[in-house]
Amino acid sequence: MGDQSSAWLKVLDLDELPEGRVKPVTCKHRTLCLTHFEGKLAALDNKCPHQGGPLGEGSIEGGLLRCPWHGWDFHPLTGKPPGGFDDGVETFPVEVREDGVYVAFPEEAPHVRTSSDVMVETLVNWGVRWVWGMVGHSNLGFADAMRRQHSEGALGYFGIRHEGAAAFAASAYGKLTGRPAACFAIAGPGATNLLTGLWDAHVDRAPVLALTGQVPTHLIGRGAFQEVDLAAAFGGVAKYTAVAAEHSNFPEIASLACKHAIVERGVSHIVLPDDVQVVEAPDTKSGSPDGRVTMREIAPPKDSLDEAVKRIAEAKRPAIVVGHGARFVMEPVISLAEHLHAPVLTTFKGKGLIADDHPLGCGVLGRSGTPVASWVMNEADLLLVFGASFSNHTGITSYKPIVQVDYDPMMLGRFHSVTVPVWGEIGVTARLMKERLASTAGVDQRPDVAQRWAIWKEEKTRRLSE
Known about the structure:
With 466 residues, the chain is an alpha/beta fold. Helix content is 29%, strand content 23%. The protein has three domains: 6-106, Rieske Iron-sulfur Protein (3-layer Sandwich), CATH 2.102.10; 115-278, 3-Layer(aba) Sandwich (Rossmann fold); 302-446, 3-Layer(aba) Sandwich (Rossmann fold), CATH 3.40.50.
């Protein structure tokens, strides 16, 4: 038996490893290289001391175990190198028993909290619940920290086959829920594979964190294998990028990444050099959103709300246009539309925010839209626009009086001036408008909407029969 600090672990069945062969086996969280040479079995550390090559994927040639990466040789049983070199491989006791081959593996030392633990816990505290990604050689320290949070039920992880899928999945989650999600990749091409999906998140204002491995710090700038300047590569898509270093404020990096993603509704990026991921941080507390963010249900300024309400009250045929930015607050918007008997059009990204069979629903406006929506816009004497980007694909006309409401002041009058720009949270603003609009000059447009749907459906039926 081994000493009291070791545990015997079964790693192979009898006769599983032929003479002259090697095989990688897993002992707890470590991989060993099992060898069978001259009738004896041995267990060696799987990492070649040169550059960490997997000895268990090597071969025994000329009486020596050869690393598959660079051809470094070691004795298959003792792990010692030939020729007087002093960089041998650690070995472990082996026993052959009736039911298989056992290795005396040292009891693992208690885990010491790392920089990655601090950052992952911080992400969880900020509401990150799901990560999509691919584990590899340059992100193992961070992956291990995520594994610990996963084992506690605090974080879910989905392994994917291409990093692009991870970014698109995180983007979709952010768009559908409004909550942050993360995508995870190794250095170099693994990281750059995220970019198309991250641009999707950037354009659609989805809160996403990109977590990318990087070559070790001492190799940065030397043209190392898979070294890419990731901060520069992600510069156009990320609202925030931080490159972690040995003495970084790890909870602050993670907190700022989350805050930018959530508040600015976009992509944040953390670059994680391999060595920095395992920096010990036993006394470092994780970050949290406590005292870092405020409620965002802000009301619009009184003057702009007054002017908007006045314009709506005077309009005879107001029409409401809703975009992707209104997707989480449609209840008060539809309530306002029903109060005004005003038809509701959507942008192509807002498709489905109001059902087509709703008495005021007119479908999508623009190139991907319906003639019902375009007719309503053309007949309107005021457009009340909630959370739309005024994309050329939708084609919201600029020659009509427009009251535009958005939570992002940069979106107001983005491409051209509007009659009344209103900065405020969309749901709050819609409720305030309804409260202020006790009576209006508007007509009930439901019959017009129903008639236009009937005309279009009749036309489609006629075309199908031709």
